[in-house]
Design brief:
The protein has about 500 residues and is α+β, with helices and mostly antiparallel strands. The protein has 17 helices and 20 strands. The chain folds into 2 domains: about 1-255 and about 485-510, Periplasmic binding protein-like II (D-Maltodextrin-Binding Protein, domain 2, 3-Layer(aba) Sandwich); about 270-485, Roll (Dipeptide-binding Protein, domain 3). About 30% of the residues lie in helices and about 20% in strands. Helix 12 (about 370-385) links the parallel strand 16 and strand 17.
Length: about 500
């Protein structure tokens, strides 16, 4: 599980998941006359509702061009697959949801929520016009027992039990305080999947074929929300081609098409909550010498490395968080991230002169061997005088290597499962977290995280978590690199679509 988080976050390949498709029972999706079951192999139900009146941003039908994902189910998808994220978010709702890219939380399937005085017990009042509490509780019980998905585990790691306490309320009992828990259940990975994988979101399936998925908004929204026609392609390149041919209003493009999209449509993609960094194993024999730790950090030119990617990512200068996340505040690593190549070379030469042997570094890496960012970083280390050996590992092998501490450097990444920093910093930095594979925490970091967990005020809690991030960066175990860009390209009038930090579309904010 750890490596799905790390490798998928860095190289944006995601973890493979079993194929699944959404379904909704005829009683749920049908019109007043009962509707009919679809004739597709997946047995989807069809909606027979009235024609739409048109969307709030000038479209009766929004046409999306996407590579067909392996799954629509939120707890099975790879968070790096933006097309899958978009579809899952349209089809499934969580208890809460984040408003676009604003630092604000709003109700979704839950109408309201409350906690006890120590934030170890949370009760959510369910919107029973959309779903019943027993279905919600059963969904979370299933996740607690069965899921190892990186889209789920960081969000529910502290949940001990969940139960429906009435027809309209669900109670979560946590192992330890979590004052930001309402933010955690906004994460896409824990969006509610109904019985028989039924969708629970604001969009219904009108029809599905191999090449197209037609979605319509539920009846109460049909005067303002557009229908959505999803045009499926075999690859993201083909999906982007459909957009350039005028067949779609928005589409998820591959990395190598983003620069072309900027030239064509004069748009700059926002960042997503996927960041990557180098992890320094300061316990390895090669990096015990503090001079070599400094040489690694001083030798790497992060700006040039990211530019080598040709616009495939945005440079992250201020820590391990994406700026799009609620609670983000710059946490510069300052001297630890300064590019001072001459000093790096001097430090390496000094150590080498004393030992009489080349200073070797081993790097564990999982992903595309031609990744230009990582290639540039390796060139920087060799220019500083290091003898670099790169081991190309599978995600499982990288996970094991991280646990065993066999390498000096690890090229890592993080996919934020939720919309606020509550879903990232405690999991990544707390000393006892199962997702802290590099020992980046400290007593100071742990104390700040524990203190934050008891603060209900979002601004105050996030301030403490940012302090924890800064303290963790000061340990020298993390060298931030960059944050992923959104791959969704839009053309007018769909240019008004509002994206969340996870890359999904906030249709309500887009109206």
């Amino acid at each position: 599980m750890i490596l799905c988080l790390l490798a998928a976050g860095l190289f944006l390949n995601g973890c493979s998941t079993p194929e699944a498709t959404p379904s909704r029972s005829a009683s749920t999706i049908a019109g007043d006359d009962g509707g009919q079951l679809g004739a597709t192999p997946d047995g989807l139900a069809f909606d027979d509702g009235p024609d739409l009146d048109g969307g709030g941003f000038g479209l009766d039908v929004l046409r999306l061009s996407l590579r067909r994902p392996e799954t629509y189910l939120p707890h099975e998808l790879a968070l790096s697959d933006q097309g899958a994220v978009i579809l899952a978010d349209l089809l499934y709702d969580g208890l809460t949801e984040v408003v676009g890219r604003e630092a604000r939380l709003r109700p979704a399937l839950a109408k309201s929520w409350s906690a006890n005085d120590v934030y170890t017990e949370w009760t959510f009042v369910i919107d029973t016009t959309r779903i019943d509490a027993a279905t919600v509780a059963a969904h979370f019980q299933h996740l607690l027992l069965n899921s190892e998905s990186p889209a789920v585990v960081p969000l529910l790691s502290d949940v001990a039990t969940v139960e429906a306490t009435s027809a309209g309320s669900v109670r979560f009992v946590l192992d330890k305080p979590a004052a930001g828990f309402a933010w955690l259940v906004s994460g896409l990975g824990v969006s509610i999947v109904g019985d028989d994988k039924d969708p629970t979101g604001r969009y219904l399936v009108a029809s599905e074929s191999e090449d197209m998925l037609e979605l319509v908004p539920e009846r109460g929204l049909r005067s303002s929300w557009p229908a959505i026609d999803v045009l499926f392609s075999a690859t993201e390149s083909e999906a982007y081609r459909a957009l350039t041919l005028g067949l779609a209003d928005a589409g998820v493009a591959p990395v190598d098409s983003l620069a072309d999209a900027e030239r064509r449509y004069d748009s700059v993609s926002p960042d997503r909550s996927i960041s990557r960094f180098f992890g320094l194993n300061l316990d390895s024999p090669q990096l015990v010498d503090e001079r070599l730790q400094r040489a690694v950090r001083y030798g790497i030119d992060r700006t040039t490395a990211v530019r080598a990617a040709g616009g495939s990512s945005m440079f992250l200068v201020d820590g391990v968080l994406a700026p799009s996340m609620a609670g983000y505040d710059p946490a510069p690593c300052e001297e630890a991230c300064a590019h001072r190549p001459e000093l790096a070379a001097e430090l390496v030469a000094e150590v080498q002169a004393k030992s009489g042997a080349p200073v070797a570094l081993s790097i564990a890496y999982s992903g595309d061997e031609s990744d230009p960012v990582v290639t540039a970083l390796l060139d920087d280390l060799e220019a500083a005088g290091f003898s670099v050996t790169v081991e190309w590992l599978s995600p499982a092998e990288l996970a094991q290597a991280l646990v065993e501490g066999r390498y000096d450097l690890y090229a890592l990444g993080w996919l934020a499962a939720g919309g606020s920093i509550d879903s990232v910093l405690p999991s990544l930095l707390a000393s006892r977290s199962t997702m802290n594979g590099l020992g980046v925490g400290s007593a100071e970091v742990d104390e700040l995280i524990v203190e934050a967990a008891a603060i209900a005020d979002d601004t105050e809690r996030w301030s403490l978590l940012i302090q924890a991030e800064r303290a963790a960066l000061a340990t020298g175990r993390i060298l931030p690199i960059d944050v992923a860009r959104s791959h969704l390209v839009t053309v007018p009038p769909a240019a008004g679509l509002v994206l969340r930090a996870d890359g999904s579309i906030d249709m309500e904010a887009s109206q």
